[in-house]
Amino acid sequence: MDLTQGTAEEKNRRAKKMMLWFGIVSLIMGFAGWTSAYIVSSKRDDWISDLELPQAFFISTAIIILSSVTYFVAKKFVSRNDQKMGTIFLLATLVLGISFIVLQFNGFSQMLENGYYFTGPTSSIKMSYVFLIAAVHIAHVVAGLITLLVVLVQQLRGKYMPGDMLGMELGATFWHFLDFLWVYLILFMYFVK
Predict the structure, then answer these.
(1) Which one of 32, 45, 136, 174 has the fewest CB atoms closer than 10 angstroms to its CB?
(2) pLDDT for residue 148 is more than 60
């Protein structure tokens, strides 16, 4: 298909989707760099191999997976023109997203209580990576929550209808990416000792 063909609206939709995917690919490259550095650093003598990730990280994983399900269901309802249920599931996604962040900070507190610090004389390179990777992901979830709030406001204004859901589709794609990314990161940090 020739990307230069189509109406102005079709070109605009393609351009917005392409820009989102460029952003996602750049995020993948950033996290690939950090996880690669984590692997290389794991060969150091001072690497902590018996670190137990906080329980809050695993609970937050279930929460963010559930939030992807609620976003998916919200999209389905809106695509069937059930605006009320679409809004309810978008609100559920927002609550779950905020819960994810709260649980992540609880996980940080658990690590600090166990004597693991980001920096300082009692820190380790592994802990620095765990804190960094989780914190950068949280920052992106905050961006995801902002996009979700924009989608929710647009939904409440009646902007989305079957066949006209670009903003919601873009927001959902970004949210699902953040979900997938966290699942990858938690599995990575759990299995790469």
Answers:
(1) 45
(2) yes
Residue 177: what are its φ and ψ, rounded to 5°? -60, -45
What's the gap between Cα 96 and its chain centre?
12
Mean pLDDT of 87-101: 98
In the chain, domain spans: 8-45+54-191
Q: C-alpha angle 57/32/13, rounded to 5°?
A: 95
Concatenating the DSSP letter of every residue in 153-189 gives: HHHHTT--BTTB-HHHHHHHHHHHHHHHHHHHHHHHH
Contacts of 69 (CB under 8 A, 6+ apart): none
At position 173, the amino acid (one-letter code) is T
Smallest Cα–Cα separation from 166: which of 34, 41, 36, 78?
78
Nearest to 181 by CA among 148, 146, 138, 143: 138
CA 75/CA 46 separation, integer angstroms = 48
Output the CATH code of domain 8-45+54-191: 1.20.120.80
- What percent of the chain lies above the pLDDT cut of 70? 98
End-to-end CA distance of the chain: 46
